[in-house]
C-alpha cells in the first residue's frame, strides 16, 4: 500500500526534479514549511552526491508508517565507485567536494534516521527517514 | 517546536511594532538567547516569525509570505553549519580532556630524580610553550657523580612529546654502560636514528659532573652551548663540543671535552627556548643571559634557575614561543 515514486539522476537538472518530487511528497504527507525544506535539502544533497561521484543513480521517495507514526523515506542508490572510508565521510568538517555541501553528517542531521551501505567498486545505497512529529 | 516560545516571540514583536522603542528591541534581544539555549535552528526562528506575522497582520500580500518561505530555504545550510560547529566544539572539549590526561601520563613517564652529590647544587626549570613539553631533562646519578641530558626535539607539541619517551628508555638502558658523554650520545644517536621519523631531529647536551676531581665533562649533539661561570674571575665562557644532531647519521661521532669547576663556579645548560627569547625588539643577546645569571650568582642553583625564568618569561609577558628549559650545576661552597 506504500506509495512510492522515483527520479533517475543523470543530469544536474534531475537534482531539481528530485527536489520537486520530495517537496510535493513532504507537503502531502503533512510536513510544515521548515521540515519540507529540510527533506528537500537532504534529497538535494544526496542527488548531488550521485551526480558528482557516481555519475548516475536514483532517488526514490516512499511514504512509510511505523507503529502509528507517519513519515517519508528517501532511498538514494547508485552503482558508482562506492565510499572508501565511511567513518571519514561521516565526520564533521569533512567534505570531499570542497564546496559548501552539507555532506553526510548534514543529511543525517536533517533527517531522523540515516543508514548507509556502501561497497567499494559496487555502489552506495543511502536510506534516510523523517517522521511527522 | 516549542509553541510557548512562538507565543512569547509574537507578544514581544507586537509590542515593538507598536512602540518602535529601543527598550522593546532590548527585550527582544534578551529573548533571542532563549532560541540559542533551546537550540532552535535559524530556519525555525524564521518560521516562528512568519507564524507570528500571519496572526498579527493577516492582511499582508502573498509576496511577503512567499518571501519567508524563500528565506527559510536560505537558512537551512546556515542551520546545518551551526550544528556542525557546535558538534566540533564538543569534540574539541573531549580532545582537551584527553590532552590533559596525556600530559599527566607524560609527566609520570618522564619523571627524573634530581641528583644528590656532595658539593653539587642543582637547579632546574622546564616550562612547555604549549601543553606538552618538547624539551627533556634526564638525570643519571652514580656514586659521587651526576650526569644530565638536556634535549630539545625540533618541533613542539605532541609529536615531540612522544619522542621523549624513547630517549628516556634509551637512557635507562645505559645505566650500567659506559656513561662518558661521548659514548652516551653515540648510543642515543643510534637509537634515535633507527626509530624516529626522518623529519624529526633532536639536539642534546650531555654533561657529567665527577665529584672526585670536580671535573665537568660534556658532549653536544648540535645543542646550544652551555655557559660556564668562573667565580674567581667573574667571567663566562661557552662550553661547546662538535657533533651532529641526533638521528641524522647512524655512525655520528661526538667530541668530548671537560672543564674543572672551582667553588662558586656554575654551569648553565639550556635549550633554545632560553637563548632565543623573543621580545618586541627581537631576539635577546647571550650577554643578557649572562648578566641575569651574574646578578644571582650567590643564590642557590634553584633560585638562579627560577630567577632567569621569571626574568625572560616576563619579557615575553609569560607567553613562551618555545619550550623553556635551564639546568644549573653549581659547585657548592659552604651551603651544600
Strand order of the largest sheet of chain B: 1-12-9-6-7
Estimated share of beta-strand residues of chain B: 15-25%
Q: Pairing-aware structural class of the strands and helices of chain A?
A: alpha+beta
Q: Please name the CATH architecture of the largest domain in chain B.
A: 4-Layer Sandwich
How many distinct folded domains of chain A?
1
Which CATH C-level class of chain A is it? Alpha Beta
Radius of gyration of chain B: 31 Å
How many beta-strand elements of chain B? 12
Protein name (chain A): Serine/threonine-protein kinase RsbT
Domain Histidine kinase/HSP90-like ATPase (chain A): 34-133
GO molecular function, one term (chain A): kinase activity
Keywords (chain A): Kinase, Transferase
List the helices and strands and how they pair.
The complex is a heterodimer of chains A (133) and B (336).
Chain A (H helix, E strand, L loop, with lengths): L3 E6 L2 H18 L3 H22 L2 E10 L2 E10 L7 H4 L13 H8 L2 E7 L3 E9 L2
Helix pairs in contact in A: 1-2, 2-4
Chain B lengths: L2 H17 L2 H16 L4 H15 L5 H48 L10 E8 L7 E8 L2 E9 L3 H16 L8 H15 L6 E9 L4 E7 L4 E5 L4 E5 L17 E4 L5 E5 L1 H4 L2 E2 L2 E2 L2 H10 L5 H15 L8 E8 L5
Antiparallel strand pairs in B: 1-12, 2-3, 3-4, 4-5, 5-8, 6-7, 6-9, 9-12, 10-11
Helix pairs in contact in B: 1-2, 1-3, 3-4, 5-6
Amino acid at each position: 500500500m506504500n506509495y512510492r515514486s522515483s527520479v533517475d539522476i543523470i543530469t544536474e537538472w534531475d537534482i531539481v526534479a528530485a527536489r520537486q518530487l520530495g517537496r510535493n511528497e513532504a507537503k502531502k504527507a503533512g510536513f510544515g514549511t521548515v521540515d519540507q525544506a529540510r527533506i528537500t535539502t537532504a534529497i538535494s544533497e544526496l542527488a548531488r552526491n550521485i551526480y558528482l561521484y557516481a555519475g548516475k543513480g536514483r532517488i526514490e521517495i516512499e511514504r512509510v508508517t511505523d507503529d502509528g507514526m507517519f513519515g517519508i523515506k528517501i532511498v538514494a542508490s547508485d552503482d558508482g565507485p562506492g565510499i572508501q572510508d565511511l567513518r571519514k565521510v561521516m565526520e564533521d568538517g569533512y567534505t570531499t567536494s570542497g564546496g559548501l555541501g552539507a555532506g553526510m553528517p548534514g543529511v543525517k542531521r536533517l533527517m531522523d534516521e540515516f543508514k548507509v551501505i556502501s561497497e567499494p567498486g559496487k555502489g552506495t545505497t543511502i536510506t534516510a527517514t523523517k517522521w511527522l512529529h | 517546536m516549542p509553541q510557548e516560545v512562538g507565543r512569547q516571540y509574537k507578544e514581544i514583536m507586537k509590542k515593538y511594532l507598536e512602540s518602535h522603542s529601543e527598550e522593546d528591541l532590548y527585550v527582544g534581544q534578551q529573548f533571542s538567547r532563549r532560541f540559542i539555549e533551546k537550540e532552535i535552528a535559524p530556519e525555525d526562528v524564521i518560521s516562528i516569525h512568519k507564524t507570528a506575522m500571519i496572526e498579527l497582520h493577516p492582511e499582508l500580500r502573498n509576496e511577503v509570505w512567499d518571501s519567508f518561505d524563500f528565506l527559510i530555504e536560505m537558512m537551512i545550510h546556515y542551520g546545518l553549519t551551526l550544528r556542525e560547529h557546535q558538534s566540533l566544539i564538543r569534540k574539541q572539549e573531549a580532545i582537551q580532556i584527553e590532552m590533559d590526561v596525556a600530559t599527566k601520563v607524560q609527566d609520570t613517564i618522564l619523571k627524573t630524580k634530581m641528583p644528590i652529590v656532595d658539593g653539587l647544587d642543582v637547579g632546574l626549570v622546564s616550562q612547555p610553550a604549549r601543553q606538552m613539553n618538547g624539551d627533556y631533562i634526564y638525570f643519571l646519578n652514580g656514586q659521587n657523580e651526576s650526569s644530565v641530558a638536556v634535549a630539545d626535539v625540533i618541533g613542539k607539541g605532541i609529536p615531540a612529546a612522544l619522542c621523549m619517551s624513547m630517549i628516556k628508555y634509551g637512557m635507562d638502558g645505559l645505566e650500567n654502560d659506559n656513561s662518558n658523554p661521548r659514548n652516551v650520545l653515540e648510543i642515543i644517536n643510534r637509537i634515535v636514528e633507527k626509530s624516529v621519523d626522518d623529519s624529526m631531529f633532536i639536539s642534546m647536551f650531555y654533561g657529567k659532573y665527577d665529584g672526585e676531581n670536580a671535573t665537568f665533562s660534556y658532549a653536544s649533539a648540535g645543542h646550544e652551548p652551555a655557559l660556564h661561570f668562573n667565580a674567581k674571575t667573574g667571567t663566562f665562557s661557552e662550553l661547546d663540543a662538535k657533533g651532529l644532531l641526533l638521528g641524522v647519521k647512524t655512525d655520528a661521532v661526538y667530541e668530548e671535552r671537560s672543564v674543572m669547576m672551582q667553588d662558586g663556579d656554575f654551569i648553565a645548560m639550556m635549550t633554545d627556548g632560553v637563548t632565543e627569547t623573543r621580545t618586541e625588539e627581537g631576539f635577546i643577546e647571550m650577554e643578557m643571559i649572562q648578566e641575569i645569571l651574574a646578578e644571582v650568582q650567590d643564590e642557590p642553583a634553584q633560585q638562579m634557575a627560577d630567577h632567569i625564568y621569571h626574568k625572560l618569561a616576563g619579557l615575553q609577558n609569560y607567553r613562551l614561543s618555545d619550550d623553556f628549559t635551564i639546568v644549573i650545576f653549581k659547585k657548592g661552597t659552604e651551603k651544600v
